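Run log, item B.
One chain of 333 residues. Sequence copied directly from the ordering sheet:
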Amino acid sequence: MTAQRPTPVQGDDGGARRPLIVDFADNRLLPHLFGEHDVHLARIERALGVSVSSRGNRIAISGDAEAATITRHALRDLYKRIESGHEIGPGDVDGAIRLAVAAEGDEVRTQPLAGIRTGRRSILPRSPAQGAYLEALGNNELVFGLGPAGTGKTYLAVAVAVAMLLDRRVDRLVLSRPAVEAGERLGFLPGDMKEKVDPYLRPLYDALHDMMPPGEVTRRMESGEIEVAPLAFMRGRTLAHSFVILDEAQNTTTGQMKMFLTRLGEGGRMAVTGDPSQIDLPPGVRSGLVEAVETLEGVPGIGFCRFGEGDVVRHPLVSKIVRAYRLREEGGR
């Protein structure tokens, strides 16, 4: 990966195959596209088995024809994101590759999938499933996000909710989780009720602080505009003009899920996220999430988005871990 004149590569027929050329309009954006010490280009080269060289505003991609086309697609997506004012990091590069592979080099899609802006950052989808999920969250009053850990189900739902709160499309943001333990009982943990349940809600706090300045999160929580509470605190309430998120919903019972869904009030929105393969309920207790999906799928106005192991956007090993466990479970059936 050097700034030099591209050289032809050998084709399958023994002849020279010319590199695929990509031109970009603004040279000033290319350092952001390449990354410090060309780290972004190196990441693409390793992932797709291509060689990338640059001269001026021109990039030459050498390698397998399909991989070169995918590389071009990914580079164009990343460039358009930078052109729109977004910063890109390693995760965005991986996401652009994932989107380009899914598009199979289709040149019809010339714009990257739309993202959203929150108080601290811009958030862009890193897989086709994430793009569909963001679209569903924007268009439906109730959305179920289903799939393994690391696919962005909760993070993206919080992002959409924060964006709607900042745009005053909703008056409140309510984040909830069932306090179901994997191996421990709340009664045996030290502290008062808040101290007992806060560890279960920590991922929701983390997402909020990633999207809004800490002082603003605290201020809005004190004013009641943002509420983070265990699922039990939802009983008896009507949540109008609120964006309500239920995380880890696979650990709800049928009664809890029905109770939660019927809290939806006028002008409200809901997102329900969970992984049906990671249920921590006692043996013999059916998951309210599984039953809700079976009962409600096909009802107009409700969106269902399913993520797979290929949509995992955490460390690449997470996707491999999820796949290994799935194969082990399938082999034991």
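Observations after the first pass:
- The CA atoms of residues 209 and 216 lie 9 Å apart.
- The chain is about 40% helix and 15% strand.
Flagged for discussion on Thursday.
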